[in-house]
Structure formats: C-alpha cells, structure tokens
Specification:
This protein has about 120 residues and is mainly beta. It has 1 helix and 11 strands. Helix content is about 5%, strand content about 50%.
Amino acid sequence: VEIVESGGGLVQPGGSLRLSCASSGFRLVNYVVGWVRQAPGKEREGISCIETAGKTWYEDSVQGRFTISRDSAKNVMYLQMTALKPEDTGIYYCAAGLGCTKRIVMNYMWYWGQGVQVTVSP
C-alpha cells in the first residue's frame, strides 16, 4: 500500500502548480482523499479533501485558488493550485481515509504519502 505525490517545485508568486496523488495496492478513488501541508516552522494543516461522492472541502486560505479533483479511470487525485502566494510554501502530503473534515484530514487518515515540496518565491 503506497501513496505517491508528484508535481511540486518552485514557482513565482501568482503562478500555478498541479499536484498529483497516485496509489498502489488500493484504489485511491474509493476513499476520501485529502491534502495536508506543512509550512516551515509551522504545524501541518489540512487544506482540502474530496469525498467519494465528490463533495469537497477547502481551508479558507486556499478557497477559490485551489481545486481538488480526481480521475477515476487513472486512479489519480489532483490539487490544482493557482494564484500561489509565498505563504503556500511547504511540503504537501496526500492522504486517504474515510472522513472529509479538517480535523480528520489532519489527524485520522489511514494512508499517507511522503510529501512533495512546493516553494513559492520570486
């Protein structure tokens, strides 16, 4: 059972990135999938999740700029990030579980990826 994130990198403020999350050993799309990030020197925070039925949740700081989605055929989840800000810098983790709330995404997901670095800097 494994989750692998990809798509991170260095981008200028105002730019965009799309993170991908893929799984092996289980079908990612059969679970709630969330994204958690950890900024340098800060605690990790849940920023988004999507339920199997498609309902989504976003943290206020990313609402309107980030979009979570999935490709069921490919068994891949995405986090499209636009209008990126320096404060979006951090390690982004994909996680799978059974609940789509900030508390559950942060603390009670079953499977976690290793994380991918996103750096927003001029």
